[in-house]
Design a protein that fits this description.
- By secondary structure, this protein is an alpha/beta fold.
- It has 17 helices and 11 strands.
- Strand 5, helix 4 and strand 6 form a beta-alpha-beta unit.
- Helix 5 packs across helix 12, helix 13 packs antiparallel against helix 15 and helix 14 packs across helix 15.
Length: about 425
């Protein structure tokens, strides 16, 4: 069977492609940007669903396709993401193309509860995409999963692991209950509906067997890691609002934090539903979170990830702040000190321009690190700049290595922190 999968680099899409390929199927992956993940199969199609809004954008890629599985989704509008275009515009164009190309089966991932309530642009656009598919003359299946958790760690599964690593667990205000569902059960469901004899033209909620509070989910992960229970404290509404707004700001810089305004609205609604129709149609018995975790003991690498999860945003706040403020200080209150450091050296005649050039370079590097699409370039630039400062300082003012405050010595831990940032930069 030839299956086209959109959102093939996401949590569900990547796992599904791997299972399909292992089962001998011909998998056509649609990615919105290149992926470094190895995959044996045809070269992926680079197509941003937010820009593929016409039927003709999809027709060439559906040749000989037996089925399409749409796993594409974004949480919130930002400079790099558009919920309306991805969930409604791009999806509608894909479904129209499937109808024209006589694709036998279309499986579409929505979200639990969108047919009952739409508190955000995420759920409203998801529902519009569902309705666009139901209007088509296709053998369609709409799957509406709750929060999907699995061994891969990004999105919600990464957030829960990161929260589990905190010694003090913040209790977020106004959070609904979650019937988390396991990734393996979700993938098994897709494989079931790809069978030629499977039913179609139905929408199913994929929900776990128990409704848990967000803190209970975190506690399950903490137990999985082998750690004692964390002390809890209630996070004030104003503090939670600041965190969500900070996530919105990070998204405008191209990052993809899970804690954003749309997440707050969706979490307040919760993610619960009735799994019985799903069980009746497929015979799949959804696993509980505790059972799923017990079958896959945590490793030291997963404990590292959990510990680094909350450190990563701190790194990418501190580094741009460090470089930009260093440049600002060099041009303002630290101007005289910077010039005096150079004036008695071999470049004394150029002390003023050298300080200006260094300050501008610092601020450019900081801005590049802060902007996610240029983050890697900025980190390499910062490393190169740090090495240049270390070498130039050693030549022009070698006595700075012996200063009590260690202006040159401090370059060494700064370098290491940039290499750490490079190591944790990728999100998937």
């Amino acid at each position: 069977m030839r299956v086209l999968v959109t959102g093939a680099s996401g949590l569900i899409g990547a796992a599904l492609c791997a299972r399909l390929a292992a089962g001998g199927h011909d998998v056509v992956r649609v990615l919105h940007r290149p992926s470094v993940a190895p995959f044996t199969g045809p070269t992926p199609i680079l197509l941003d669903m937010a820009n593929a809004l016409r039927t003709q954008d999809w027709i060439p890629h559906l040749a000989d396709a037996d089925a399409v599985v749409n796993c594409a989704g974004v949480l919130q509008d930002s400079v790099r993401e558009n919920t309306q275009h991805v969930h409604t515009g791009g999806a509608s164009a894909l479904f129209a193309a499937c109808e024209q190309a006589n694709v036998k089966k279309v499986i579409h991932f929505s979200a639990i509860g969108v047919d009952r309530q739409q508190p955000s642009a995420f759920s409203a656009s998801k529902l519009a995409g569902d309705e666009a598919l139901m209007a088509r003359d296709l053998n369609w299946v709409i799957l509406r999963p709750s929060v999907v958790l699995g061994r891969p760690a990004f999105g919600a599964s990464a957030l829960f692991r990161g929260l589990a690593a905190l010694p003090l667990l913040p209790v977020m205000p106004d959070t609904g209950r979650l019937q988390v569902v396991q990734l393996d059960d979700v993938i098994s469901t897709v494989l079931f509906f790809l069978r030629p004899d499977s039913p179609s033209r139905l929408a199913l909620e994929l929900a776990g067997p128990e409704a848990l509070s967000m803190n209970k989910v975190v506690a399950c992960y903490r137990h999985w890691f082998g750690w004692n229970s964390a002390r809890e404290f209630i996070l004030p509404n104003w503090a939670a609002a600041i965190l969500y707004r900070a996530g919105d700001a990070a998204a405008q810089l191209g990052w993809r934090p899970p804690m954003r305004s749309n997440a707050a609205k969706e979490i307040e609604r919760g993610a619960v539903g009735d799994p019985q129709p799903w069980i009746a149609e497929t015979g799949i018995q959804p696993s509980s979170l505790a059972t799923a975790l017990s079958l896959n003991p945590a490793t030291v690498q997963e404990r590292w990830f959990a510990g680094l999860y909350v450190v990563k945003p701190a790194i990418f706040v501190v580094l741009p702040f460090f470089w930009i403020m260093t440049g600002v200080i060099s041009l303002t209150t630290g101007w005289r000190s910077g010039v005096e450091l150079l004036i008695d050296t071999a470049v004394g005649a150029l002390a003023g321009p050298a300080v200006v050039a260094g300050a501008l370079a610092d601020m450019i590097v900081g801005a590049l690190i802060a902007w996610r699409p240029t983050g890697r370039l900025g980190l390499f630039g910062a490393i190169a700049l740090s090495l240049f400062y270390a070498i130039a300082g050693s030549i022009l003012r070698p006595e700075l290595w012996n200063e009590p405050l260690g202006p040159l010595m401090k370059i060494l831990p700064i370098l290491v922190l940039h290499f750490v940032a490079l190591a944790v930069l990728e999100e998937r």
